[in-house]
Amino acid sequence: MTNTHHSTAGQQDMLAVRYSRRYRLCQVLTILGVIFLFALGSLSLIDNAHILGALLISNGILGLLNLYLLSRTKNVERAALILSGILFVLSMSLIITGGKSNTGILWVYPIAAINLFINRFWPAVFVFCIFSVCSILLLLTPLSFLLMTTYTITEAIRFLLTMLALNSICLAALRSEEQAYQTIMQLHEDDIRQMAYYDTLTGLPNRWSFKSNLQRAIEKAKKDEQSIGLLYIDLDNFKQVNDQFGHEAGDKLLLEFSERLSNAIRPADKLHMPMAGSLARLAGDEFVVLLPNIKNASNASDIAERILAIFNGGFVVDGASHMVYASIGISIYPDDATEPSELLHNADAAMYNAKHNGRNCFRFFTQEIAENLRQRQQIENGLKLALIEDYFTLVYMPIFDCKNKTVVALEVLLRCSSPELEGIGPDQFIPVAETTGLIKEIDLWVISEAFQALSLLQSEHKFKGMVCINISGVELKNENFPTQLKNQLTTHKIDPKYIELEVTETAFVVGDVTNLKILNELHELGVSLALDDFGTGYTAFNQLIHYPADCLKIDRSFVNDLFSEREARNKMVMIIQNLAELYDLRVIAEGVETEAQLTYLTEIGCDWAQGYYLSRPLSWNNLINFLKAH
Ligand code: C2E
Ligand code: CA
Ligand code: CA
Question: For tag attachment on the chain, is the N or C end more exposed, with fewer CB atoms within 10 Å?
Answer without folding.
Answer: N
